[in-house]
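I have been asked to look over a protein record a colleague put together. Alongside the sequence sits a line of tokens, each denoting a local backbone shape. Please read both lines and tell me whether the tokens look consistent with the sequence. Take the sequence as given and treat only the tokens as open to question. I have pasted the whole thing underneath without changing anything:
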Amino acid sequence: MTRAREIMTPDPTCVQTSQTVRDAAQLMADKGVGALPICGEDNRLKGMLTDRDIVVKVLAEGKDPRAVTAGELAQGEAVTIGADDEATEIMNTMAEHKVRRLPVIDGHDLVGIISQADVARALPEPQVGDLLEALSVDS
């Protein structure tokens, strides 16, 4: 069975909790990604920041992206997957939490990110179709 570490994108770039949303947006642009893990000074995962978060929670509310930190947008505990978890667990977690990206954790260390596209490339079409349908409902 396919495991998370086999399909993840390894070594994700983190935005630090103390960095500004402007810094995070620049990192996203430089890396060509729409989401970044938010890591604390201890390099532990604190949450995920998406381009949508920046638009809805900062720009649309008239906040200054140079004054808001990534840590301010980290809400609750991030939904994660273990590096050795199987593909069915990845799909179930994505569907249950309606997330398109999952940080991959090995112990306490962030080791990768699995996106919806990673799943689509790695799994058979019927399973991918089920995941897409689950993520599309009420989105």
